[in-house]
Each structure stands twice: as structure tokens, then as C-alpha cells.
Specification:
It is built from twelve helices and 13 strands. By secondary structure, it is of the alpha/beta class. It folds into two domains: about 240 residues, Aspartate Aminotransferase, domain 2 (3-Layer(aba) Sandwich); about 110 residues, Aspartate Aminotransferase, domain 1 (Alpha-Beta Complex), CATH 3.90.1150. The strands form three sheets. It has a seven-stranded mixed sheet with strand order 1-9-8-7-6-2-3, sandwiched between helices. Strand 6, helix 7 and strand 7 form a beta-alpha-beta unit. Helix 4 crosses helix 8 and helix 11 crosses helix 12.
Length: about 350
Amino acid sequence: MAELLSLADKECLELWQGLRLGYTEASGHPSLREEIAKTFYSPIHFSCVRTFAGAEEAIYAFIRATISQGDEVVVFTPAYQSLLSIPKACGANVIALDLEQQGGVWRFPLAKLKEVMSNKTRLLVLNTPHNPTGAMLTPAEQEEVISICRNFGVLLLADEVYREQELDGCPTLPPAATLYENAFSLGVMSKSLGLAGLRIGWLCSQNTELLDAVSAYKHYLSICNSAPSEILALIALRNKHVLLSRNRQITQDNLVIIQGFLARHEGKFEWSVPKGGCVGFMKFCSMSNDGVTLEDLADRLVNEFGVLLLPGRNFPGAQGDFSSYFRFGFGRKNFPQALAALEVALSTVL
């Protein structure tokens, strides 16, 4: 908190010190929306931005406002749970498309996407950089996805919460909302910027009529944002380069530590190095671990050592077998201590 406030400019300090703790505007503080638009979506006007209580509320409100019984929704899997479960709760027919490993790299199955898309499809849900694999679309692949959506008149929910946390020189893709009139770009303060406690997320779209319908749903949820959070988010966005640089350094340092971990446990774990974000999908090689399954390992780690791994079977909707994979986050500053605790546990269990 002190570190963030130390970055505040004169205007933000005045807003902070003179802040009234009453209700805020439901769509978000105009200065915050303007900063979001200018920072991420230029030249789109800030009237095309609406804020929410984190990305989760934005996802829920968007799907509730746009999806009805019998609609067809296509989602790339494995996926953040609500991207699948909320459309299902609305009565949608959800088609899951598993990411594939090609040449040691996770890729989006665009050939299969073309096969399943039809005039019945209402929505495509796309998350890139992808959680949990760290996969990213190439610029050409992004153009292909946009073209497919436009050809079928499909809405696109572009979950871009890890955008600008690209790794290993991967280019930052333009936000989908700037490329396609029916795309809704999802952003949040919690992932790339590392400020989850602010609970500020947003949607940006050129389709303001549908965006208004999504915003109206917020009145049944949080109603409005936290007043202090809006000003703190404004300070953070005006110093985005400082926060992004800090967080990229943390993830890059942690990736080096992971390479050491893999070398020490050669043959027991494998993974495709993520191209973006701060999570990866690591494989547990049971054949090299005396037949111990990932489920057995996860149960012992959490019950005996308080170390939590999330096995791939817990990711809903996936059609393939991800049972030997687990989500491996490396975005926290205390990652070295967490990894050390894991290795102490592994030395006993394996």
C-alpha cells in the first residue's frame, strides 16, 4: 500500500486525500475508465469501458446478460472454471476444445475451431495468455480467430487478464476489442499488475448496446466499486510500466529457479515453458516415480505437508486426459520459499 501510494501524482493524491466514502458510479469512476481506455485500448473511447468487482463479476455479468437456454458456447480447455460453468448454468450447450501439445509447445486447436463453429454458435471464449498452460496465439492466429468470429457473427469474450506478462520475447497482441466490433476484452488489476486485493476488473467493447446490458446486470451484484480501490487502481495504471517491470522480473527470476528444480528432478517432471502469464501446466511422470499417481501425490502433499497442487482432473470441461498435469504458478515473490517447501515434501513422498 505504501509502495503504491508513493507513486501517486498530484491529482491522484488529491483524489485520495479528499475521497468521500459514499456510493460510486456504477460504471466506474470516469477518470479510471478513461485511464483504462487510454492505457490499453487506444483509440477506443472510455465510454466503451465498464468496470466490475474483479474479473469474476465481469465474467458472470457478461455471460448472464448474453447467453440463454440452448445457445452454443465454445470454450478452449483446460480453463478457468467460471468460463465453462456459468454458460452451463445458463442452459448453454458448451463445446470444449482442448489445447494440444505440438513440438513441446501448447497450441490452440484452430483447425478444430473451424469445424465446430456454426450459425448456432453464440459465443467463443478465448483466454490468451492462457491459464493454465501459458500458451499464446501468434498475431496471425489471432487474426484467424477474429475472422472466424466475424464470419459467423459470433460474440468473442477475450480473457486477456495476463496480457502484458508475455515471456521470452513473445509479442504483446493487440486487445481483441480493438480488432473486432463484437469482441469483449476482459482485464483486471489482479494478474499482470499483481493487485488482486483492489477487486477492480473491466470489460471493453465497441458494442456499447450489449455492454450496457452487461453493465445493468451489475446492479444485481456489487452495484458499484469500492471508492478507495478505484483511486488506488488509477494510481497503479498511471504507473503501469513500474508495476509490469517489477512483476516481469519476479516471473523471469522464478523461471530460472524452475529450471533448477527440473534438473534436480530429471525424468520426474516435465513442462512446456509458458509463453505468457505466470502459470504453467507441469506434467508428473508417474512411470518415473515408482508408479505413484498425481492424485496420490497431491493427497499426501496437502494432508501431510500443507502443500497444495491442483491436478488437471480438477479443470472442468476438458475432453482429453490431463490427469497427469497440474497447475504450477510462479508469479509470487515468495515462490523460492514455496518451491523449497515442495521439495522437502517430495523428498519424503517420492
